Amino acid sequence: MLGFPLGNLLTVIGTALTLVGFYAYFVIDNATLNLAGFFYGIPLLLGGLALKSAELKPVPLARAAAEVIQLRKAQATKTQNQVRQDVTRFRYGQEAHLDVALEKLGLSPSDDERPELVALREENREGAYTLVLDFASPHVDFETWKEKQERIGRFFGPGLRAEVTQPTSDRVEVALIVTAEVPADV
Questions:
Q1: Rounded to an integer, what distance in angstroms lies between the CA atom of residue 140 and that of residue 158?
Q2: Where are the transmembrane segments (predicted)?
Q3: The CATH number of 57-178 is which of 1.10.10, 3.40.50, 3.30.980, 3.20.20?
Q4: Following DSSP, what letter does each residue of 133-171 receive, concatenated?
Q5: 184 pLDDT band (50/70/90 cuts)?
Q6: Contacts of 167-173 spanning 24+ positions with Cβ under 8 A
Q7: Could you give the CA distance from residue 26 to residue 160 in angstroms, rounded to a whole number?
């Protein structure tokens, strides 16, 4: 898993190869180096720029205490791990993190009104591993989130229940809490 954007890497490599191609063409008159620079450099540069335009930055994950990390290893469901891994890395070609899930849950009336996942943290809630998703939700009211709370828990899979809270007027937190009814490897 890359800790930096792939678009940046391709843009830098493509720029370097393109510049080598131009240098070879105009300064040292080296046809082989010139062609290699143009044939590889320009496509890599354009590909890198295309990725940069379609890039979705990772959501910040708050540093968890050692006990919470141990709890994650012992209890976290596959869904919790998948959500955590997906939203904390660079994504390409998506409008927003969890956009499909929000749409299926009826929490995304339109692209402009879709809640935005802005932070993520892990907690120990009464001995249960909990993944907390922090959404900026200025257009979807808290009552709508509360109505969907049970459905959110079912959507994210067996072995989880959801708790929805509102820390501020335009923020909503969704806590995905492991329940004791299902084995930890779900």
A1: 26
A2: 6-26, 33-51
A3: 3.30.980
A4: EEEE-SSS-HHHHHHTHHHHHHHT-TTEEEEEE-SSTTE
A5: very low
A6: 167/134, 170/136, 170/137, 170/138, 171/118, 171/134, 171/135, 171/136, 171/137, 172/115, 172/134, 172/135, 172/137, 172/140, 172/142, 172/145, 173/132, 173/133, 173/134, 173/135
A7: 64
DSSP β-bridge partners for residue 92: 55
Q: What are the tens digits of pLDDT across the range 42-95?
A: 999 999 898 888 887 889 998 989 999 999 999 999 999 999 999 998 888 788
117-144 residue pLDDT tens: 999 999 999 999 999 999 999 999 999 9
Whether pTM exceeds 0.85: no
Q: How far apart are CA 84 and CA 7, in angstroms?
A: 22
Q: Which helix (H) or strand (E) holds 32?
A: helix 31-36
Angle at 140 between CA 144 and CA 60, to 5 degrees: 110
91, burial (CB in 10 Å: exposed 0-12, middle 13-18, buried 19+): middle
Q: Which two tokens stand for residue 150?
A: 């049970």
